[in-house]
């Protein structure tokens, strides 16, 4: 309700010293929700329990590696077991994780979320419960087809002729080829240490088997681009990006480790009282007893709350007064652009900002397809009531918009009539992101609850084709054996 979201001006007038923030996350499957919860709990772990280096390395491996070290796998099991016990008990969750709210999720979604955590915690014993290495290789074979025997040449071509040309020159051939072959992007220890399947990458689907819908578990994530582009191609410290004889001095993995460590360092400093950070003035005030209670170091965990929304709620949020004209910032990933509609735009506050991730680093898209994708994003944003952000620096990675109050900008032509994009395909379908054949999945031991993790949208709904150009003839596809899902 409205009382949960007080006006920021009221907080300032009351002199609380804290500007409370609410973050709302809308995902297309509960496995992604579970991964968010795990990553946030890792980032907000007490420094006394886990050091900065260990936390950074654990994040990189859980987030970007198909195989884990035993120590990291043990952390995932322990944390998943804790979250599995907290999900069905809101009171305990509010006490131990005050920054997290699952109140908006449906009961069946919470049950399915608990089942995901129990699988991560080792409810199904043995590596065969999720044979990641075999699943990865089968996905790769399906993606490359007849090119599988020349996979090293294909990975080198994708890296040098696509990712490097699009601004990711710091990714080294060795690390990219290793990730394409094994799924291990960040090798922080000896290669033999990585042998435990990363269960957090598992996802469930309903597949047809002999005329029946069967719940199956497999890996349908990225096997084309890699996780390097998120934290590994830019850095504030420009010395990390220098080259020698035309070759980068640092790898994308090393840059990722630096950026993630600095990020977690800021989170840790933000979460501690100023005196604990070594502020001399604050220490003197505390020693003399003159420090004001409300400013003596409120923990960051109390200054924000992350709410997870129901999986199918994008088109209905504007019906609730607590969401309408509420959000100051909307961020939309490139694989969720089909949700960008007038209904979602109605949730943005006047003058609010919209940031849309573009498909720059999807290696199976041609330059002209990237341009058409960007144009289509602009059309959808205009139909949702947004105008291009004035003064924004041109970017091929993100499109930035601002909520417009001009009703004329909300009028839509035939191509933008309902805000639901046409189904024509702009991009070649990426096998790297598609559900493979039945032999790439593991049947679930027992029927899963009828929840969203096993009721994902169809391939066409998950693909970039939902937001792409209105003319199929104008976007003739190349001869590619790939399909798309981000």
Automatic annotation (TrEMBL):
<keyword id="KW-0970">Cilium biogenesis/degradation</keyword>
<dbReference type="InterPro" id="IPR028235">
    <property type="entry name" value="DNAAF3_C"/>
</dbReference>
<dbReference type="GO" id="GO:0044458">
    <property type="term" value="P:motile cilium assembly"/>
</dbReference>
<comment type="function">
    <text>Required for the assembly of axonemal inner and outer dynein arms. Involved in preassembly of dyneins into complexes before their transport into cilia.</text>
</comment>
<dbReference type="GO" id="GO:0120293">
    <property type="term" value="C:dynein axonemal particle"/>
</dbReference>
<dbReference type="InterPro" id="IPR039304">
    <property type="entry name" value="DNAAF3"/>
</dbReference>
<feature type="domain" description="Dynein assembly factor 3 C-terminal">
    <location>
        <begin position="100"/>
        <end position="389"/>
    </location>
</feature>
<feature type="region of interest" description="Disordered">
    <location>
        <begin position="410"/>
        <end position="461"/>
    </location>
</feature>
<protein>
    <recommendedName>
        <fullName>Dynein axonemal assembly factor 3</fullName>
    </recommendedName>
</protein>
<dbReference type="InterPro" id="IPR027974">
    <property type="entry name" value="DUF4470"/>
</dbReference>
<dbReference type="Pfam" id="PF14740">
    <property type="entry name" value="DUF4471"/>
</dbReference>
<feature type="region of interest" description="Disordered">
    <location>
        <begin position="271"/>
        <end position="298"/>
    </location>
</feature>
<keyword id="KW-0963">Cytoplasm</keyword>
<comment type="similarity">
    <text>Belongs to the DNAAF3 family.</text>
</comment>
<feature type="domain" description="DUF4470">
    <location>
        <begin position="23"/>
        <end position="68"/>
    </location>
</feature>
<dbReference type="Pfam" id="PF14737">
    <property type="entry name" value="DUF4470"/>
</dbReference>
<dbReference type="GO" id="GO:0070286">
    <property type="term" value="P:axonemal dynein complex assembly"/>
</dbReference>
